[in-house]
Write a structure and sequence with these properties.
Two copies of one chain form a homodimer. Chain A is mostly helical and 243 residues long. Chain A has eleven helices and two strands; from the N terminus they run H-H-H-E-E-H-H-H-H-H-H-H-H. Chain A has two domains: 66 residues, Winged helix-like DNA-binding domain superfamily/Winged helix DNA-binding domain (Arc Repressor Mutant, subunit A), CATH 1.10.10.10; 163 residues, Up-down Bundle (Four Helix Bundle (Hemerythrin (Met), subunit A)). Helix content of chain A is 72%, strand content 3%. A two-stranded antiparallel sheet of chain A has the order 1-2. The longest helix of chain A has 30 residues. The radius of gyration of chain A is 23 Å and the shape is elongated. Chain A binds a DNA duplex (30 and 30 nucleotides) through helix 3.
Chain lengths: 243, 243
DNA sequence: GACTTTTAAATGTCTGACAAATGAAAATTG
DNA sequence: CAATTTTCATTTGTCAGACATTTAAAAGTC
C-alpha cells in the first residue's frame, strides 16, 4: 500500500487504499486494522491524516472504532439494514438534485415493484398481508395528514416488496420506493382520490392473498396510471397558476 | 444546530447536523459552508473535529472542498454516475459479506432486469443495439478469459437496462447487475455453455430490435433458468469434491 | 490598460499534549 | 486458593498551535 505523499489529498488516498483492501478481501469482517499510530508510521503521515482517512471509511460504514486497550478500528459487516438507509438517503438526494421528473421516478418505481409482484404472490406470509391490510385501514381514516398518508403508502408497498422474501430485492427497491415520497408529498391528494387509492390497494392485497399475480399486476398498473394522471393534473394546474 | 459536547463522537454529530441541513434543503447545491474556523466556533469544538466531520461528508460525496481564499466546502450535486459507482461497491460488499446465495442474487437481478425489458423495447436506440451486438460478438471469441467474458456479459445487460432510458432505473439496476459479477466469476463457464449463452443473448437482442417484448422476456427467462442450472451443477460438484 | 506583485483567507498536514475508555495483568483481600 | 480490587499500558477522541500550500482578489507597476 503506497501513497503519493506530495499530493494534497493524503487522507483520501489512505482511505482508498484501505477500502480496496477490504473490497479485495485482504481485510475480512471483524479484522482489526493497525492502530492509528502504526498506520501513521506505515504511510509516513501524521496521525491527524490517518484519522481523517478512518473517518471517511466510518462514514461509509466500512469500519467501526472502539476506544481503549485492544480497541481500534475493525472492519464492519455490511448490514442490509444500514445499507438500505444509506441507499434511501442517496436516492432521495439524487431525485431532488437532478430535476428528475415525477414521470421518470414513478415509472422506475412501478416497473421495479411489478417485478416483485409474482414472487411476492408465491411467498408472502400472513404477516405481510396483515401489514398491508392494516395500512389500507389507516389510509381510510379521515383525519390522516398527507404526510402520514404517504408514509402509510410507503409502508404498504414495502410490505408487498418484502413479501418476495428476497433481501437483495428489498434492498434495491427501497431506494426507488422511499425516495419518491418527497415528490409524492408535493402532490396533495384530495379525500376523494384517497378512496380510489384504497380501493386499488385492497384489490392488490386481495390478489396477493389469493396468490393471483394477474390481479396484483393489474392493480399496480391501475395505481400507476391513476397516480400519474393525478400528478399531471396537479402539475398542469400549478403551471397555470404561475402565469 | 446543537450538539452534545460531552459525547465522544463530536465529528459524527457535526456531520449529521450538516447532512440533515443538506437533505432538508437548508443548504442547496453549490452553497458554501462556513469555513472550518467558523464552524469550530459555531459548534464550540476544535478545528480537528470539524475537519473529521467534513471528511465524513466528503466520503459520502455530499461536499467538495477547495483550497485558497474564497475556497471552502461546497455542497455537491449528487451525480447519477458517482452514486452508481458507490452503489455498486456497497451492493458487492453486501453480497460477499452476508452469505447471499447465488439463487437469491440471481433471482433479484433477473426480476429487475425483466422489469426493464418492455421499456427498453420501446425506447432502445441504435446505439444500445450496436453495443449489445458488439458484446455478443466479443463473447464468441475463443481466447476470451472468464473475467473478460463476465465483464462483457455485464456490459450487454447494462446496455439492455440503459435502453429503457430511465436514469433512475439504470441507477437502481446497476447495483443488482454488477454486484453479482464476483459470484459469476466463481462459476467458470465451459466453452460450450458460452455458446448457449451467446445464442440467448442474440435472441434477446433480436427481440429488442424487433421491439417484441415477449421474445426479450422469453430470452431473459431462458437465460435465468439456464445459468441457474449451471450454477447449481457447479456448486453440487464442488460440494462433492469437498467430501 | 495590461501585467506583476503582494496579501489575506482558506484548506492540508504535522506535532505534541491531555482526556477518557477499556481490558489485561498485578495486587490485595477474605 | 478464589474473588475482588487496583493499577497500568494501549488506543481512540479532542484540542491548540504551528507551518505549508493554494487561490483569487487587491494593490502596485509599467
Amino acid at each position: 500500500m503506497k501513497i503519493d505523499t506530495t499530493s494534497p489529498d493524503l487522507s483520501a488516498q489512505i482511505a482508498k487504499a484501505i477500502r480496496e483492501a477490504i473490497i479485495s478481501g485482504e481485510l475480512s469482517v471483524n479484522d482489526r486494522l493497525p492502530s492509528e499510530a502504526e498506520l501513521s508510521e506505515q504511510f509516513d503521515v501524521g496521525r491527524t491524516t490517518v484519522r481523517e482517512a478512518l473517518k471517511r471509511l466510518a462514514a461509509q460504514n466500512l469500519i467501526r472504532t472502539q476506544r481503549g486497550a485492544f480497541g481500534g478500528a475493525f472492519v464492519n459487516k455490511q448490514s442490509f439494514q444500514d445499507a438500505q438507509a444509506a441507499h434511501i438517503t442517496t436516492s432521495t438526494l439524487l431525485l431532488s438534485m437532478n430535476d428528475v421528473s415525477f414521470d421518470t421516478a414513478w415509472e422506475a418505481r412501478f416497473a421495479l415493484e411489478a417485478a416483485c409482484a409474482p414472487l411476492s404472490c408465491q411467498r408472502r406470509t400472513a404477516d405481510h398481508l396483515a401489514t398491508m391490510r392494516a395500512e389500507i385501514h389507516r389510509q381510510g381514516q379521515p383525519g390522516l395528514t398527507d404526510e402520514a398518508f404517504c408514509a402509510s403508502d410507503v409502508a404498504f408497498h414495502r410490505a408487498l416488496v418484502d413479501g418476495a422474501q428476497n433481501p437483495v430485492l428489498s434492498y434495491q427497491l427501497a431506494g426507488a420506493v422511499e425516495a419518491i415520497e418527497p415528490l409524492m408529498n408535493m402532490i396533495t391528494f384530495t379525500a376523494r382520490s384517497r378512496e380510489a387509492i384504497c380501493d386499488m390497494h385492497t384489490s392488490i392485497a386481495d390478489g396477493l392473498e389469493a396468490q393471483d399475480s394477474k390481479t396484483v399486476e393489474a392493480g399496480l398498473s391501475a395505481l400507476e396510471t391513476y397516480t400519474l394522471t393525478l400528478a399531471r393534473d396537479v402539475i398542469t394546474s400549478r403551471d397555470q397558476q404561475r402565469r
